[in-house]
């Protein structure tokens, strides 16, 4: 296969200007350039472009895309594409769930039927912090986390959220009692917290310690815990720092 830039633009919907930009920044170099300056793309370049466009659909920044696609290892490329495939399937399923929720809402409005809050927001993706998560832990980790969440049925999702609330409430009671972060009771709750996080991503010593620091240092995360009592987030941070010593990076 040997397509010129105009044919590639028609085939993919990517403008010629964008393709020239990708060439200029070294993201997608054509197989060859004709005597008239036209760029031509072969199979290898088209496969790379497909990978780039998949990552763009997943809202990965261009500089990160370059680090992902710059590999000559077919096994690694295949493994990365498999992760992206999982993420795309999760996105497909999420939009299907949202479409069903909107359809039910329309029906209930038209028929004057009541609708619970759970019904109203079923299928919505609570990923307000996803850009920060991508920056901290990488796109593939976030993609796997999103896919893991999407793989849970509604009952398991509710159970997972309830477990987090139970842990936070118990930590709040212990924070009010000025509990020692290294105490058995607090450490048992942190073990549950680590297991809760590990459903999607298993943090090692450094990552888990950093996560604990975020809970206390970031006002948004701190509020999530301190609604159960002042000092809850700090107790969790300090307890995680103790627990993390038993982990490996």
What's this model, at a glance?
With 249 residues, the chain is an all-alpha fold. Helix content is 69%, strand content 3%. The chain has helices at 5-12, 16-24, 43-57, 62-69, 74-111, 117-120, 130-137, 139-151, 154-176, 184-197, 205-217, 219-226, 232-243; strands at 3-4, 32-33, 39-41.
Structural summary, described in words:
- The chain is mainly alpha-helical and 249 residues long.
- It folds into three domains: 3-67, Multidrug-efflux Transporter Regulator, Chain: A, Domain 2; 71-151; 153-249, Globin-like.
- It contains 13 helices and three strands.
- The chain has helices spanning 5-12, 16-24, 43-57, 62-69, 74-111, 117-120, 130-137, 139-151, 154-176, 184-197, 205-217, 219-226, 232-243, and strands spanning 3-4, 32-33, 39-41.
- Strands 1-3-2 form a three-stranded antiparallel β-sheet.
- Helix 3 (43-57) crosses helix 4, helix 5 packs across helix 8 (139-151) and helix 11 (205-217) packs antiparallel against helix 13 (232-243).
- The mean pLDDT is 82.
């Amino acid at each position: 296969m040997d397509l010129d830039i105009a044919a590639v633009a028609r085939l993919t919907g990517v403008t010629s200007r964008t393709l020239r930009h990708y060439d200029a920044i070294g993201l997608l170099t054509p197989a060859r350039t004709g005597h008239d300056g036209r760029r031509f793309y072969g199979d290898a370049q088209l496969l790379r472009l497909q990978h780039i466009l998949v990552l763009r659909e997943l809202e990965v920044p261009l500089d990160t895309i370059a680090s992902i696609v710059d590999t000559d290892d077919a096994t690694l490329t295949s493994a990365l594409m498999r992760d992206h495939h999982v993420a795309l399937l999760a996105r497909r399923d999420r939009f299907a769930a949202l479409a069903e929720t909107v359809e039910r809402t329309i029906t209930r409005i038209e028929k004057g039927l009541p609708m619970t809050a759970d019904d109203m927001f079923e299928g919505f993706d609570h990923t307000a912090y996803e850009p920060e998560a991508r920056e901290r832990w990488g796109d593939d980790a976030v993609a796997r986390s999103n896919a893991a969440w999407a793989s849970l049925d509604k009952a398991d999702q509710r159970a997972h959220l309830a477990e987090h609330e139970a842990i936070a409430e118990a930590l709040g009671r212990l924070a009010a009692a000025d509990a020692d972060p290294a105490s058995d009771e607090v450490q048992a709750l942190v073990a549950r917290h680590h297991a809760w996080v590990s459903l999607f991503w298993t943090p090692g010593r450094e990552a888990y310690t950093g996560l604990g620091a975020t809970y206390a240092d970031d006002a948004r995360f701190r509020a999530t815990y301190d609604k159960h009592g002042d000092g809850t987030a700090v107790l969790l941070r300090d307890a995680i720092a103790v627990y993390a010593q038993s982990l490996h990076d």
